[in-house]
Design goal:
Elements (H helix, E strand, L loop, with lengths): L1 E2 L9 H15 L3 H4 L7 H11 L6 E4 L2 H11 L2 E5 L6 H7 L3 E5 L1 H6 L9 E6 L12 H12 L3 E5 L3 H4 L9 E5 L1 H4 L6 E4 L3 H4 L1 H6 L4 H42 L10 E5 L12 H14 L2 E2 L1 E2 L9 E5 L5 H13 L5 H5 L4
Parallel strand pairs: 1-10, 3-4, 3-5, 5-6, 6-7
Antiparallel strand pairs: 2-8, 7-8, 9-12, 11-12
Helix pairs in contact: 1-12, 3-12, 4-5, 12-14
The chain binds pyridoxal-5'-phosphate.
Pyridoxal-5'-phosphate binds next to helix 4.
Length: 347
């Protein structure tokens, strides 16, 4: 089975060896076991700040992206959440007491989301939004800066900055993110950065982030060559697989698949290819998933991300160029995908 459903790829042995060595070093540093570090371990903060172009004094280590979401939901009554988006934030925001409404980037940028500015968080993911690989343009970033200047709290989930390069957080917005996509949910580390983040997140920071020993191990690993190993391995592999997928669609099938940032892309589906006269998104997506599954590919239904149209999400983690080419052939041949229609200007 070729898995495009989004599980991060395992690390090469060299990266695992370096990581294990740095866990040992961190464990032998006695102050890490006894001195609290509520804003996070200094080595990890420095390395993340440098890599993500964030001010180190504002960078705060959290237990995960979803842990950072808890803080906003506790402090603000209303979160205007982009759609589509990573769905894992929804139960966290709502469960922590915020009213969550959904809006497209266009609606958010136009100010069409309701709620008082002082009580409202606007939530974007960029660069390389999950699930569609979209990145804020220069104009959109300027509009975000205006909204922030008008008093809205704007949060940008920059989790995929590792995969796309970093244009810098829009002026006036907070950056949040996670290390989860570099290894898996077991990484259990994230960040928030903004002028008030540390003070606002203090209750969560007292109670939830992983041990400073764990944080230092990650900091040493990333600083001492781990990030370069991941860049040359995991991250480079994503680019190779994406390029192979798009090149194959263009060269062998005459399909121009739009460029997307980061590892995730949406493959649109064609309602006319369904047996049912007026199929639901669920019917279309499930039948396309089942057909791809029979051919040996695993993807994810886009409705889970609140996508506007029926589609499948493919994530190019841990697949080689040959597998990406086979996937391109499968989606091009499939009567269920709408790639050919879109390419001919019908959708
Ligand atoms: C955009 C985005 N943010 C955050 C996460 C999860 O982060 P965490 O496990 O740190 O909450 C994911 C996982 O798929 C994601 O796609």
């Amino acid at each position: 089975m070729i898995d495009l459903s989004g599980s991060p790829a395992p690390w090469p042995d060299e990266a695992t060896r370096l990581w294990a060595d740095r866990v040992g070093r961190a464990a032998r540093q006695s102050d890490l076991w006894t001195v609290p570090a509520p804003q996070g371990d200094e080595v990890l903060r420095e390395v993340l700040a440098a890599q993500l172009a964030l001010p180190v004094e504002q960078l705060t280590i959290t237990a995960s992206l979803r842990a950072a979401a808890l803080t906003y939901a506790r402090r603000f009554g209303h979160v205007a959440l982009e759609r589509p988006t990573y769905p894992g934030v929804v139960p966290v925001l709502a469960g922590a007491g915020a009213q969550v409404t959904r809006a497209s980037w266009d609606e958010l940028l136009k100010g069409a989301f309701g709620g008082e500015p002082w009580d409202t968080v606007l939530w974007f993911t960029s660069p390389g939004r999950n699930p569609d690989g979209r990145t804020l343009t220069g104009q959109e970033r300027s509009r975000i800066a205006e909204l922030a200047a008008e008093g809205h709290r704007v949060v940008v989930n920059e989790t995929y900055a590792w995969f796309c390069g970093q244009a810098g957080t829009p002026a006036g917005a907070d950056s949040v993110g996670t290390l989860h996509k570099l290894r898996g949910v077991g990484a259990r580390l994230g960040w928030m950065a903004g002028p008030g983040c540390f003070e606002e997140a203090f209750p969560e920071l007292l109670g939830t982030p992983p041990s400073p020993v764990w944080q230092r191990a990650w900091g040493l690993f990333l600083r001492d060559g781990g990030l370069d190993l991941l860049r040359d391995g995991l991250l480079a592999q994503v680019d190779i697989a994406k390029d192979a997928f798009r090149d194959r669609l263009a060269s062998a099938h005459g399909i121009e698949f739009p460029a997307f940032d980061g590892p995730n892309a949406l493959i649109p589906l064609d309602p006319r290819a369904s047996e049912a006269p007026t199929p639901t998104a669920e019917q279309l997506e499930e039948s396309a998933l089942a057909a791809l599954h029979e051919e040996g590919f695993k993807a994810v239904a886009a409705r889970h991300f609140d996508a506007e149209r029926p589609a499948l999400r493919a994530t190019f983690f841990g697949v080689g160029a040959a597998e990406a080419i086979r996937f391109a052939d499968a989606v091009a041949r499939s009567p269920r995908t709408a790639l050919r229609l879109r390419c001919q200007g019908h959708t």
